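To whoever is on call:

I kicked off a structure prediction for a single chain this morning and the downstream step that reads the tokens threw a length-mismatch warning. I double-checked the sequence; it's 271 residues and nothing unusual in it as far as I can see. Pasting both halves so you can look.
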Amino acid sequence: MNGSRRNNKNNNEEKKENMDRWLVTYADLITLLMIFFVLMYTMSQVDVKKYKAVVNSISIVLTGQAISVLDTQGPSLAEGLSGQQIPEGEGEIPANQGQLQEVKNLIQEFIETQDLELGSGETGGKTTKLGEYIVVYEQERGLVISFKDTLLFASGSDELTPQARSIIRQVGEALKDLPNYIRVEGHTDNLPIHTARFPSNWELSVLRASNVVHVLQDEGGIPPDRLSIIGYGEYRPLVPNEDDLSRAMNRRVDIVILKQKYDYFEPPSIE
């Protein structure tokens, strides 16, 4: 009888011990699940500004154009990013857009009214309007001031003519009060060049852009930490290089005043 009671007592203790083990395991599982869902929630909180910056960066690299968000339709983990463009704000005017428009109007007036003296030779003694050699237009990335290479350089050279230096200086003076980053881009046609100074069109495009930057800084008064240089060689043509006319269109130097929303693409200054 006593033995039977002892056996029952032992069985009850084993059952209670097994029950305790099960509860501990269950509690551990619930804790892990809670941690998992907290992590998932934290990861789902996308910084929209950084997300848009990444998307724009990828788009510029792949297509040469920036977009606000993904063009494709479909669901998204980030609220408000389901393939629809995110507006800057209802009726909101982008930062310093008014300044950019004033600069655009000022430069447009300058190139439309300024007379350009043509060089000696067949066209010696003649004048034309500067607007035939400079085009101003807007892109998603900002305001572009595009110079035909014949306005700035002799054929196959990177040295600016005195007249070109004067024009770039005046453009720089119009831009110096803008807080925007300014990128100077050199472009060539697809005709090969191979000299000691220019082993290829890469070097020619970079040095042409570099000389324009020096004038913008030294004579136009633009702070150097707002300037950058890119040489694209022959690889960013406006039109296919099919004849002399199309090649002339592709030989250019572009001054690009970047919109301020692209500031986070530029390396920060330590000063």
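Update from on-call: the warning came from a stale cache, not from the record. Cleared it. Sanity check on the structure: The chain is about 45% helix and 15% strand.
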